[in-house]
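Quick start: what a row looks like.
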Amino acid sequence: MPADAQYSMTRSKNPCFYNDCHRCCLNTRMTLTEADAARLEAAGCRDFFFVNDDQDLQLINKDGHCIFLVNGRCSVHDDRPEGCRLYPLILDLSVDRVVLDAFCPWAKEFTFTEDDRVELRRSVTDEESENRIRAASRSRRERPGQA
């Protein structure tokens, strides 16, 4: 089994925590599934995302960082979006492969299972499906009187 095939994301083993890093939270373009938004809303969060031009639910940046970054830490860590949970694992759409994001300075210190890779693909598929539904709904609203 390759070194990156075992995922362990406890706070004590999380490279972000022990390296005091939050680089991925700066000027983030993190998108959300509807399940992410619902989980965060159930946790009491409000006004934390917008629908971007691609119809993605996208986290808001405040003062150049994720709205949930407070004093260098994630204020919603236990309820954070799936993309944040799985980061630095990303889907490289140009080659349709799940890879570690080179932007993360500690990427090689994370380990992931094949289940994590499958979960990332499922999450991206969910977002794409939700985007199509939002786009179709928007299109119907913009063309009143047409089915």
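That is the whole record. Confidence is low (pLDDT under 50) at residues 1-12. The beta strands are 31-32, 49-51, 57-59, 61-62, 65-66, 69-70, 73-74, 89-92, 97-100.
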